[in-house]
Amino acid sequence: MPVAFVTGASSGTGREIAEQLAQAGYLVALAGRKLDELDRTATHIAAKGGESRIFAFDIRDEIATAEAIDAFLVWSGRRIDVLVNAAAIPGPVEVPIGKLSLAEFDAMLDTNLRGPFLTMSHLLPVMIGQKHGRVINIGGNHGMRGRAGRVGYSSSKWGLRGLTRCAALEAGSAGVTVNYIAPGPIAVERMKRNWAERARRDGIDDATAVRRYTAEMGPALGQLNEPADIAAMVLFLAGEGGRNITGQELVIDGGIVV
């Protein structure tokens, strides 16, 4: 049975990716900080006949990450087929550089860039040694362009693109692929809360708030992402269809970045 390690598996897109991989026949390691939410993901997977195991740790913590991955490799028999780095934080929104604190900036880099570096530093050598593996980093379309007021988040995603490309070059001769998925806005609980807050502020209903936000983003297809859209690309890259794709950025945003 192929083995996948998914960070950020406690909610949102990471949870959807973990559940879809389990449905596809992967034994899935669920990585994240919130044990109760990881339990929910594991329960969803088990209810559909899938198999998973929880590894609760803080991806920002170097020692905790090393210990969790060591435990994972013992559990998996030192096999790792797919690594998905989906853990991320958005940080403050619409905050200009002069008002963003260093602590806020560092927090985004720690989770969104340093975290993937730590998991890859432990698991990429294993993949190279077994001459097989797929690393899939979940970035964002803010890593494909700049945006005022999102300097920390955008910087972390641009950095993740660089990490992805360098790792792809290092691992390619062993047949290991490393790619970057760049989603646009995704209809996860955090975004839904933001839309609800906007609706209250503007005196409109939630559906109208979503339509206005979508119009502002300007996707050519006129729609935002669902978590399943990202999971579908992960499954493609993890499978035989992704065997000759590496070092690439795959934008999934309905046509915002064109």
Automatic annotation (TrEMBL):
Entry-linked Pfam families: adh_short
InterPro entries associated with the record: NAD(P)-bd_dom_sf, SDR, SDR_fam
CDD domains, alphabetized: SDR_c
PANTHER family assigned: 3-OXOACYL-(ACYL-CARRIER-PROTEIN) REDUCTASE, 3-OXOACYL-[ACYL-CARRIER-PROTEIN] REDUCTASE FABG
Family the entry assigns: Belongs to the short-chain dehydrogenases/reductases (SDR) family.
Protein name: NAD(P)-dependent oxidoreductase
Organism: Burkholderia gladioli
The organism's taxonomic lineage, starting at the top: Bacteria, Pseudomonadati, Pseudomonadota, Betaproteobacteria, Burkholderiales
